[in-house]
Amino acid sequence: MRGLTRSGRRAETRAALLFISPWIAGFLIFTFWPVVYSGYLSLTDYDVINDPAFVGLDNYRQMFEDPKAGLAFRNTLIFAAMSVPTQLVVSLGLALLLNAAARATGFFRTAFFLPKMTPPVAVGILLLMLFNGQNGLINTVLGLFGIQGPAWTTDPDWVKPGLVLMHLWTVGASVIIILAALRAVPQELYDSAMVDGAGWWRRTLRITVPMISPTLFFLFIVDSINALQSFTEAYTAFFGAGNTTYSNDAALFYVIYLFQQAFQFLHMGYASAMAWLLFVVIMIITAVQVLLTRRYVYYEGERP
Amino acid sequence: MKRILVWAALTLLSVAFVYPFVWLLSASFKPRGEVFDHKLIPETFTLDNYVKVWQEAPMALWMANTAFVTVMAAVTVTISSAMVAWGFAYFRFPGRNVLFGVLLATMMLPGAVTMIPTFLIWNSLGMVGTLTPLWAQNLFGSAFYIFLLRQFFLSLPRDPFEAARIDGAGNWTIFWRIALPLCRPAIVVTWLFEFQAAWTDLMRPLVYLRDSSTFTVPRGLKSLLDAYGFGGEWHWEIVMTASVIATVPMVVLFFLGQKHFVRGIATTGGK
């Protein structure tokens, strides 16, 4: 039988290593070396043409003095703080509705998910069209109710709320994930709560949300990590690529500025330092979230 | 009563979610002056925008480039990830759990950290400006799909594999002839996810593509926005029509693989 003799064990190891060798090679070339090398580059000035020149921690120092880097950092945090909770609440609401309808939800589920298939570039373009201050659909609809909508795509105060709202259009995947979690909540819990006379709100807040808290927590972390790396929609809508130069500083997200530094200004060393700072910030935020939520998340089978 | 309220809310919300599609589609059939009239049925129905997009932009070429990249990306990542996943799922070997832990950890790494050195690799190979950097990394598998496929392999009973081994089948035969066909649902999910990711990506085409003739559809769409939207021309109807063309294949893909998409997302939490 397998794994009993020493030569058999060695053959098994050899076979396993052959199967996983593509990943090992890929890891060394496209993950391990890049991480190490970008750490080195972050300590240099490098423009691709000339050799990297060692500058110590200058790039990191420069980041704290560069007003645009500070702006990009603030923009990203503000956007994440607005976007992540909104997304979570809306997708939970939609999933609860779908769950309450119980039957024939296929059509609605499709309607909620379909926008997620739209290429992010097209989402950015739709943002410009729908949220156009003068004649966009959103402000036209608001106008029907006598509300004068803001200039979503130009007014610096309204650019980020516009991006947050547009982003809500693509919550479909979260809705499906939460719906799957909702369907796994044992019915007996609700039955006994009904006997006790608990209303819908009470049941939702006291049973549903705690029971699916691992899923909500997972989405919270994934959405936060994604929001901190937001790029495509905002870049499409607010920054010209190539010869056309238009830009809106209110939408200057961290990864957009990093991309510009690296590939438009060829400041590869500075951009690498920015990437490392992002890495550290994401690790810290994730760690804090894990520590904070550990007390509030219910895992079945966990000892108290 | 409660049921009626729920259904009313769902109907209203799903209209709100679908409406932007309908609005965009309808605008693509309107002449320039009527694009923002917000009428659902175009007052003047015209196909001019589609003709113009096809004339003004190498749309067919962009489609062909994207199709090439997308198919290469999806096929290579599926085969390589399945191989690696099988290696982790079926065999026991020293260091397996450590290696798998490393694999899971790489999923946490922000793409921005590896982006610059990876660009330098392709640059030193003289491949910047070609389509290769957009898919070739997939030859080495991808952590998320390896994780997904390994979970699936672990859920299979071991008996068919042991029986095949006793019949004298080698490791490759067992993987290719028995394990892979059994794994079809997970393969389809991997394929669909990667197809969508490769088709819609903008970041890599921005980094690697220079000449308009090498553009993918999203990169081309961005260049159309820059030229016709903000380039002083304000031909939004062109940009919108091109957006429709870029989106339709993904909508078709979704309807073809809806069941798999939904199950894949629900079971892996893949976003």
Describe the structure.
The complex is a heterodimer of chains A (304) and B (271). Chain A is mainly alpha-helical. Chain A has 2 domains: 6-59, no CATH class; 67-294, Orthogonal Bundle (MetI-like fold), CATH 1.10.3720.10. Chain A contains 14 helices and 2 strands. A two-stranded antiparallel ribbon of chain A has the order 1-2. In chain A, helix 11 (213-228) runs antiparallel to helix 14. The longest helix of chain A has 36 residues, at 6-41. Chain A is globular, with a radius of gyration of 24 Å. Chain A starts with 5 loop residues before the first helix and ends in a 10-residue tail after the last helix. In chain A, 39% of the residues are buried. Chain B has a single domain (42-268), classed as MetI-like fold, CATH 1.10.3720.10. In chain B, helix 2 packs across helix 12 (236-268) and helix 3 (59-90) packs across helix 6. Chain B is built from 12 helices and no strands. The model of chain B has no long low-confidence stretch (mean pLDDT 92). The radius of gyration of chain B is 23 Å and the shape is globular. By secondary structure, chain B is mainly alpha-helical. At the A-B interface, helix 1, helix 3, helix 4, helix 5 and helix 8 of A face helix 1, helix 3, helix 4, helix 5 and helix 9 of B.
What characteristics describe this protein?
heterodimer, A: 304 residues, mainly alpha, MetI-like fold, 2 domains, two-stranded antiparallel sheet, 14 helices, globular, B: 271 residues, 12 helices, 71% helix
* Named CATH architecture of chain B: Orthogonal Bundle
Name of the CATH class of chain B: Mainly Alpha
Give the structural class of chain A: mainly alpha
Estimate the mean pLDDT confidence of chain B.
Answer: 92
Computed over alpha carbons, the radius of gyration of chain A is 24 Å
Please, how many domains of chain A?
2
